Amino acid sequence: TLFALTFVCYCVIVQVNVTLILTIIMDKSLHEPMFIFLCNLCINSLYGTAGFYPKLLIDILSTSHVISYAGCLVQSFAVNSSACADFSLLVLMAYDRYVAICRPLVYHSVMNPHRVSALVFAAWILPVGQMLIITVSTSTLRLCGSQISRMYCVNYVIRRLECTVSITTVIFPVFILTYYFPHFLLVICSYFYIMRTCLTCKEERIKFLQTCLPHLMSFITVALSLLFDVLIMRLSSEKLSESAQNFIEMQFLLFPPLCFLCRKS
């Protein structure tokens, strides 16, 4: 059944991520920047899926799909902040690979424990802080509807229910795009220099295939999933069947975690 399939999928995600987190924490040889970033990516995967899967499992068993306004805001905060944190952590991993391959002689001085801790802290606190401000702002809006058009709550679909379009509804998406677009450019630049270095050195080419290619696939999966999800939210999807809409909404929360699991394995 759908419930059993969804439950198994969620259990696999939880089990693999918890196993990897414990392995990285307990094995001191894995206390390197790349594995620290990977550990945080696992934690974020648990956090993001916890904001979505439990409610989905309840909805599958229930005949009425209802969520409180407070619950909707909490789910929106969890899903949005997890997506942004994913993006930030993947950017840090790209920078780490750039320093390791293009500047190996200064790798340990650049990626020292203090700097790694600061980068990880920023990758968490900035997305969480941004989404907390946006969620609090959304909670103050006067809504003229109570039915959302998606399987789960996100900030954009909640704001579509407001009676009059506020200035924050226009400003926040522009701010998020302005903030995260340079992240995307940083990854592109990092891999440009990495590939240029790998073309001239066979040893670095092997390192690229072992560590960079899986990360690049993960980043592309997350970026395309986010882009596709945003485009669907902002473009009319009335011509799509309900099953197609549900699949499109699910792919953002399903494919990135599964891609991470394949990469971590």
UniProtKB/TrEMBL annotation:
It is a multi-pass membrane protein. Pfam families: 7tm_4. Keywords: Membrane, Transducer, Transmembrane, Transmembrane helix. PANTHER family: G_PROTEIN_RECEP_F1_2 DOMAIN-CONTAINING PROTEIN, ODORANT RECEPTOR-RELATED. It is found in: Membrane. SUPFAM superfamilies: Family A G protein-coupled receptor-like. InterPro entries: GPCR1_Superfamily_Member, GPCR_Rhodpsn, GPCR_Rhodpsn_7TM, Olfact_rcpt. One of its GO terms (molecular function) is G protein-coupled receptor activity. Its main location: membrane. Residues 16-197 form the G-protein coupled receptors family 1 profile domain. The chain crosses the membrane at residues 6-26, 33-53, 73-95, 116-136, 170-194, 215-232. This is G-protein coupled receptors family 1 profile domain-containing protein. GO terms for cellular component: membrane.
